[in-house]
Specification:
Elements lengths: L2 H17 L8 H18 L3 H11 L6 H9 L11 H4 L6 H10 L3 H10 L2 H9 L3 H9 L10 H17 L5 H4 L3 H13 L2 H5 L3 E6 L6 H14 L4 E8 L2 H13 L7 E3 L15 E4 L11 H7 L18 H9 L8 E6 L2 H4 L6 H11 L3 E6 L13 E6 L9 E6 L5 E7 L2 E4 L2 H13 L6 E5 L4 E8 L7 H4 L12 E6 L4 H8 L8 E2 L5 E4 L3 H4 L9 H27 L1
Parallel strand pairs: 1-2, 1-4, 2-3, 4-5, 6-8
Antiparallel strand pairs: 5-7, 6-7, 8-11, 9-10, 12-13, 12-14, 12-15
């Protein structure tokens, strides 16, 4: 068993031992994760603690900005001015709550913000009233999280492993803030593998998640790059998260793994973009499905009037903001080349007809040749939903072979069943499944799982077919215009690669000789019909065979009735 797994198991047992019957299992993480952070921070600054307190006493009454003085002089990212750490707190059991609060107040401003967003005051009171606070602190005080014993990388693995286990205990909220690691690994590999040669020639890169939750996608992406390139590339992680608690978890993860926690911002990415001037090389996210954006409506509509607004492709219906998040990411693509991986449900592929918001967004994305790949995933991959999901991969600098083409991958049957359900999740993408999918993607060839279509394949012209009105009013008779009968109005979809007039003459005119096309109402739309692309015709049964089966079934039913009647009579 690896070192990080041993630590994870040990801490999980602490949680079960000290929190059982006082908190519900899915609440354990809210308490345990902050304590992991506290212990790691104690371990990092233990050798500088005396100097920190000395500088604090010297400057606290002389400068309002003693935070910066201490950080700069000692060249550290945080500090704690309290005379306590978790070990020293165990020396005074009678005053544990007051001393623990003193300890928490001693942290520097950046850590204080994390603690505030953890919002654990209520839990601390509950622990103390039930005589669990001291025992919990005592347990954590014995753990050795010193950087000499546990590297930043291992610390991240411990944090991620426990976060996963605590998330899996929740029936309601796990899927909102935690994307299963098998899903994340697959998405990361699809986004980054295509850029392998580009990464090989760089020394620094950036990864952004606009709905970063607890930071899992960011940490897995960094882990992938570190493993492939032996930590030779400096990876800068950036994220924004709306939920205070998950924001605190993500920022804590950055702090204890020596990433920059200041690159994690809180707020709604749609109406409070904290990275307006930033461009990123890679962006990976799992935005909310089917969540309305009504609360952001005024801000977004106001932004539409600005020259460089993020939503130039269009605005989707208020009931679902998925395509707003995608446009938000597109606005942050670097002109030198960026790649995006995003998790969607099926709605963004087909909702709305030509001139509708979603169709216009698809049109803008595809006509600008940004959509590279769509992967249909198996159902039941997520903790709190069994709905089908899809990966969209975008690239504004496609490789030569992929230009003006979109690869469709049907991975709905590529999975491994779990031996035990994790709430809604009963399937996973294991390493073998991932390898198969990655090979299918990188081969870029057509087969039963992969189809490659030109961009135009997904577009159509919606033509308006009118038929002259026959029973005209006197006023209409005097008009020089042809008056259409609106009751007979019809719309037809003509594939972009087809000639509209030829289509009309062949498909419409024979059935409606008087009809004509109102060119002023024509509109171009785009739709991604995944089922149509992978549809496989099944030969229907022979009618004679069906009749024989029905006769056989009728005979069997009759025989069963006779047996039943005989049994009842006896």
């Amino acid at each position: 068993m690896s070192n990080h797994q041993e630590h994870s198991n040990f801490i999980f047992k602490i949680a079960d031992r000290r929190l059982r019957n006082l908190f519900k299992p899915h609440e354990y993480g809210k308490i345990i994760l902050p304590f992991i952070v506290f212990k790691r921070l104690d371990s990092i600054i233990v050798d500088k603690k005396d100097k920190i307190i000395e500088l604090y006493k010297k400057w606290k009454n002389k400068s309002d900005d003693y935070n910066e003085i201490i950080l700069n002089q000692l060249k550290i990212n945080f500090f704690n001015t309290s005379s306590y750490d978790l070990k020293k707190l165990t020396q005074d059991p009678q005053n544990i709550k007051a001393n623990f609060e003193n300890y928490l107040k001693g942290f520097s401003v950046n850590v204080a913000e994390i603690i505030e967003n953890f919002d654990i005051d209520k839990e601390i009171n509950k622990l103390d009233k039930n005589d669990r606070l001291f025992t919990l602190i005592e347990e954590f005080s014995e753990i050795d999280f010193s950087p000499q014993k546990v590297s930043n990388f291992e610390m991240g693995l411990i944090f991620e492993e426990l976060l996963r286990r605590f998330s899996e205990l929740s029936n309601e909220t796990s899927g909102e803030h935690y994307t299963p690691r098998d899903v994340v690994r697959l998405l990361v590999s699809l986004v980054l593998t295509e850029s392998f040669e580009k990464l090989k020639s760089t020394s620094v890169t950036s990864i952004f998640d606009c709905c970063c939750g607890t930071g899992g996608m960011l940490s897995v992406a960094k882990e992938w790059i570190n493993e492939k390139f032996d930590k030779k590339i400096k990876v800068f992680l950036f994220g924004q998260e709306f939920n205070p608690e998950t924001y605190a978890v993500c920022k804590s993860d950055m702090l204890i793994t020596d990433d920059n926690p200041e690159n994690i911002k809180q707020g709604n990415s749609l109406d409070n973009d904290k990275f307006q001037k930033n461009k990123f090389q890679y962006m990976i996210t799992n935005p909310p499905y089917g969540d309305d954006w009504n609360s952001s409506k005024k801000f977004i509509h106001d932004e539409l009037s600005k020259k460089n607004n993020r939503f130039v492709g269009g605005i989707p219906r208020v009931s679902d903001g998925q395509l707003l998040f995608l446009q938000h990411l597109i606005s942050k693509m670097d002109q030198e080349g960026s790649r995006i991986g995003i998790v969607f449900n099926g709605s963004p592929m087909y909702t709305a007809d030509a001139n509708g918001g979603e169709s216009n967004i698809r049109k803008w994305i595809i006509e600008n040749d940004m959509l590279e790949t769509i992967v249909a995933l198996p159902d039941k991959l997520f903790f709190n939903t069994g709905i089908p999901t899809f990966f969209w991969i975008l690239d504004n600098k496609k490789s030569k072979k992929r230009k003006n083409k979109i690869q469709m991958i049907n991975a709905t049957e590529i999975y491994t069943e779990l031996t035990k359900n994790l709430n809604e999740k009963n399937k996973e993408i294991n390493e073998i499944n991932q390898k198969k999918l990655l090979e299918t993607y990188m081969d870029f060839k057509e087969n039963e799982f992969s189809k490659i279509k030109n961009n135009n394949y997904f577009g159509y012209t919606r033509i308006c077919v009118e038929t002259p009105k026959k029973n005209l009013s006197e006023k209409e008779k005097n008009s020089n215009k042809i008056i259409p009968d609106t009751k007979l109005r019809n719309f037809e979809r003509v594939p972009l690669d087809d000639d509209i007039e030829e289509f009309f003459q062949k498909e419409v005119k024979p059935f409606s000789p008087d009809s004509y096309i109102d060119q002023t109402k024509n509109a171009v739309g785009y739709e991604i019909n995944f089922k149509k692309i992978f549809y496989q015709y099944k030969q229907p049964k022979n009618s004679r065979k069906i009749l024989d089966e029905l006769n056989k079934l009728e005979s069997e039913t009759s025989e069963l009735s006779k047996i039943l009647k005989k049994t009842i009579d006896e």
